[in-house]
UniProtKB/TrEMBL annotation:
Belongs to the INSIG family. GO terms for biological process: cellular response to insulin stimulus; cholesterol biosynthetic process; SREBP signaling pathway; SREBP-SCAP complex retention in endoplasmic reticulum. It is found in: Endoplasmic reticulum membrane. Mediates feedback control of cholesterol synthesis. Keywords: Cholesterol metabolism, Endoplasmic reticulum, Lipid metabolism, Lipid-binding, Membrane, Steroid metabolism, Sterol metabolism, Transmembrane, Transmembrane helix. The keyword rRNA-binding does not apply. This is Insulin-induced gene protein. It comes from the Eukaryota. Interacts with SCAP; interaction is direct and only takes place in the presence of sterols; it prevents interaction between SCAP and the coat protein complex II (COPII). Associates with the SCAP-SREBP complex (composed of SCAP and SREBF1/SREBP1 or SREBF2/SREBP2); association is mediated via its interaction with SCAP and only takes place in the presence of sterols. Interaction with SCAP is mutually exclusive with PAQR3. One of its GO terms (molecular function) is lipid binding. The chain crosses the membrane at residues 25-40, 47-66, 78-98. The keyword Heme does not apply.
Length: 131
């Protein structure tokens, strides 16, 4: 939950903070995004997911702007804003953490009155532990 709150804070900072130029804003958001990854994830897969999402989402956004589907008032990095990949990166890390948390949740099922067992829905468990 804290990861989502930090992501919302980074998103809010990109809209509300005033900097002298876009390079300062982009570098600040890049540091905050890497800080989000370092604080809540620290895995190679999380870093790879964030970079992949940032790259693909930036390319898709550039294609949409290039084809006239979407438009920025003052683009500064090809067709988009320079801070946008930082937002995509932190969003990818946040969604990856949410997915990891959901995969780890166990489901408790009542079999007979007074007896319970926990059923895990994760790929790492052996077949006899799965529902």
């Amino acid at each position: 939950m804290r990861c989502v709150a930090v992501f919302v804070g980074i998103n809010h900072a990109s809209a509300k903070l005033d900097f002298a130029n876009n390079v300062q804003l982009s570098l600040t958001l890049a540091a905050l995004s890497l800080g989000l990854w370092w604080t809540f994830d620290r895995s190679r897969s999380g870093l790879g997911l964030g970079i992949t999402i940032a790259f693909l989402a930036t390319v898709i956004t550039q294609l949409l702007v290039y084809n006239g589907v979407y438009q920025y008032t003052s683009p500064d990095f090809l067709y988009i804003r320079s801070w946008l990949p930082c937002i995509f990166f932190s969003g990818g890390v946040t969604v990856g953490n949410i997915g990891r948390q959901l995969a780890m949740i166990g489901l408790t099922v009542q079999v007979t009155p007074g007896k319970q067992f926990t059923c895990f829905r994760a790929a790492d468990w052996e077949d006899d532990h799965l529902c």
